[in-house]
From TrEMBL:
It catalyses: hydrogencarbonate + H(+) = CO2 + H2O. Gene3D superfamilies: Carbonic anhydrase. SMART domains: Pro_CA. This is Carbonic anhydrase. Keywords: Lyase, Metal-binding, Zinc. It comes from Kinneretia aquatilis. Its EC number is 4.2.1.1. Binds 1 zinc ion per subunit. Reversible hydration of carbon dioxide. GO terms for biological process: carbon utilization. Belongs to the beta-class carbonic anhydrase family. One of its GO terms (molecular function) is carbonate dehydratase activity.
């Protein structure tokens, strides 16, 4: 086993050279400014590389990641990222992004004990508990992905309710919050339509998006087997 990770350092050199060849002066320009329009709050899963999924270069997407893309009002790390993105970088969009077959969501759904992260996943279990009756009404094999989507909706709503976003809206700053889910099986992002650009849009946007998620899974349940 390598102890120096030389293969990664070599890959970095190749990437830097290729980038500079493709866009001469890229790094010198990047050094002078950071002006992303988007804050991506996503899962720490290594299969969900934020910049690559939306084909954006370094400097074009501000990113925060944690297990199961959670946004909670006690997480000063996430809130600090949000405040810097909103107050200093003046991003226009905050996108909470979950993904299918999320290991953290699955552990929360099944009450799997894995260690310290169990305490963090209590936030996702709160989502599960709130929607438990509906989750139990759909097929077992659909529940992980359904909870992944419900979790995106709840965490996007949490983002809207942070003091960072609420204060920005109160002073008239343009910020739109979105909730998306990424399909590991097809590489595609799906907009779950919880989209809010002001405080009074949050509740109706959440209810519409929640109804749409439930309707989609209900339609799948009623679809006759092939």
């Amino acid at each position: 086993m390598s102890t120096e990770l030389q293969e990664l350092l070599d890959s970095n050199k190749q990437w830097a050279a290729d980038t500079e060849t493709r866009e001469p002066g890229f790094f010198s320009r990047l050094l002078k400014q950071q002006t992303p329009q988007y804050l991506w709050i996503g899962c720490a899963d290594s299969r969900v590389p934020a910049n690559e999924l939306v084909n954006l270069l370094p400097g074009e997407l501000f990113v925060h990641r944690n297990v199961a893309n959670v946004v909670v009002h006690s997480d000063l790390n996430c809130l600090s990222v949000m405040q810097f993105a909103v107050d200093a970088l003046k991003v226009k969009h905050i996108i909470v992004v979950g993904h299918s077959n999320c290991g953290g969501v699955k552990a929360a759904l099944l009450d799997a004990r894995t260690g310290l992260v169990d305490n963090w996943l209590r936030h996702v279990q709160d989502v599960r508990n709130h929607h438990s009756e509906w989750l139990e009404s759909i097929a077992v094999e659909q529940r992980v992905n359904a909870l992944c989507e419900l979790n995106v909706l709840e965490q996007a709503r949490n983002a809207c309710q942070t003091t960072v976003v609420q204060d920005a809206w109160a002073r008239g700053q343009e910020i739109v919050v979105h909730g998306w889910v990424y399909g590991l099986h097809n590489g595609l992002l799906e907009d779950l339509r919880i989209t809010a650009a002001s405080a009074d849009q949050v509740a109706p946007a959440f209810q519409r998006a929640l109804a749409a998620v439930k309707q989609r899974y209900e339609a799948a349940r009623l679809q006759p087997a092939a």
